[in-house]
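Please, structure for the following, as tokens.
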Amino acid sequence: MAGALKAEKLIFLSNVRGICQTDGSLISELDETEAKRLVKDGVISGGMIPKVSACLDILSAVPRVHIVDGREPHVLLRELFTDQGAGTMIVRSL
């Protein structure tokens, strides 16, 4: 649907704050190549794999996909309108 609407971004409201490094630190932005590498290397694992796979699938139609924790107050405003964001943005590889 996002592709049919020619959306510039799609936001997944999840129960996690985004993609994290093995030390628990949030990755605020990465491209699809890096996301695939993190899955292959086991950094992205468990329940995050289907979320990231869905994000990677939609990148063929939408240039940016965000994963944010929908339980956090004002998460959309923070993700969209602040430099630090609130989750992880995955962008198309060039």
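The two ends are 23 Å apart (CA to CA). The beta strands are 9-14, 29-31, 64-69, 88-91.
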